[in-house]
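User:
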Amino acid sequence: MAKVRSIGVFCGSAEGRNPVYGEAANAAGRAIANAGARLVYGGGDVGLMARAAQAALDAKGPVLGVIPEFMIRREGLLEAAETRVVTTMSIRKNILIEESDAFLILPGGVGTLEEIFDVLSRQRLDQHDKPVAFLNVEDFWDPFFKLLHRTEEEGFTPDGFHDHVSLHDDPEAAVERLMRG
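Assistant: Predicted structure:
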């Protein structure tokens, strides 16, 4: 496992109904910057992803945003972040995964789930061995982990699949875990 220099953050392009999600995104962005890592994210200026990226920028950390051109009208851009504009969502996700040495997952919707499953599938297929940490704000990820454990119990996912996946209540602890690789 290579040294962790960049942490990909997958989370909502919405704020969610509970203000604690935004607070967690702010804390996660600060923790990544304070750990000396670059935050890599979906490039927009909306939702939890923008909160995490802006918090990292405010803490003087480097940020890379990757966004398809057609999404700029919908999500805007964080002008202070380095931004790569691409043509498709698939290219965006591939770059996010390639540019990240580890992944921090915050609450989010269908897009976040799609990114998670791609990262976990690639891990399962030995395409990478990058650590993945979930920030379990208000027990958000409990049902997801219950489903993952069920796939193991039923023999659809190999035992021990969760070796590179961790669940945390605290953003600093999650980032610390990721930095260890």
